Amino acid sequence: MKKKELLKGLWSQHPIYRQLLGMCPTLAVTTTAINGIAMGLAVIFVLFFSEFVVASIKRIVPHQVRIAVYTVIIATFVTIVDIFLKAQFPQISKNLGPYVPLIIVNCIILGRCEAFASKNKLSNSLLDALGMGVGFCWGLFVLGSIRELLGAGEILGQRLLPLNFDPLVVMILPAGAFLVLGFLVALMNQVERWKI
Predict the structure, then answer these.
(1) Angle in degrees, CA 184, 189, 193, rounded to 5
(2) Residue-wise pLDDT tens digits, 119-143
(3) Where are the alpha helices (DSSP H) in 15-152?
(4) Cα separation of 128 and 50, whole Å?
(5) Which residues contact 11 (CB under 8 A, 6 or more apart)?
(6) Domain layout of the chain by residue ranges
(7) Residue 117's pLDDT band (boundaries 50, 70, 90)?
(8) Dihedral sign (CA 186, 187, 188, 194)
(9) CA separation for the pair 6, 13 (Å, rounded)
(10) Span 161-169, mean pLDDT?
């Protein structure tokens, strides 16, 4: 049971490629791999600690105000991440722009708090948060890496394509995000068909 909770976010219930959640930051910040990693780590932090708090206090929160309480909990951890990024990594904070504060309304986080952490044991909630968070992070990294490689010829500042490579400018534009995302979703669905 525990292993299943951790692994489902990495593949079978992947938040980006299977559930198509968190599309706003997925499409907006993945112009580079480092932006994807930074957003992914921010989501892991917020998701882990939000699910921890929600799973810990679920019995004392009145049912009528649970969504408001969960939103305040999530907003607290998002504020911590936002302040940390601005203080320690100002350029990454600038690159991510308004998408870090928008984690507050990210369907992955609120959905996991409402649908999972509020109904399950603390240990399972923490595994769920790690699995979903790491799944989201690797999804952003892959998307950002492909876009950066095709749009600039490099990944994480390392030149991988020859200098005479003519970058595909569309890859660093919003249309590139849609194209790469569509390809990756199709690829993941095809891999699922092969497994059957």
Answers:
(1) 145
(2) 999 999 999 999 999 999 999 999 9
(3) 23-28, 33-57, 66-88, 90-96, 107-112, 122-152
(4) 12
(5) 18, 135
(6) 2-195
(7) very high
(8) positive
(9) 11
(10) 93
Tens-digit pLDDT profile for residues 72-96: 999 999 999 999 999 999 999 999 9
The DSSP string of 122-170 is HHHHHHHHHHHHHHHHHHHHHHHHHHHHHHHSEETTEE-S-TT----GG
DSSP code at position 95:
H
The four Cα atoms 131, 190, 141, 124 give a dihedral, to 10 degrees, of: 0
Write out the two tokens for 13.
């219930």
Whole-prediction pTM? 0.94
- Which one-letter DSSP state was computed for residue 63? G
State the residue for tokens 């891999």.
Answer: 191
Q: Give 155's strand partners.
A: 158
| Percent of the chain surpassing pLDDT 70 | 99
What tokens were used for 4? Answer: 């299943």
CA distance 100 to 22: 12
Which CA distances in Å does 1 have to 15, 114, 127, 134, 196? Answer: 20, 20, 10, 18, 22
Residue 16: both structure tokens together: 């980006």
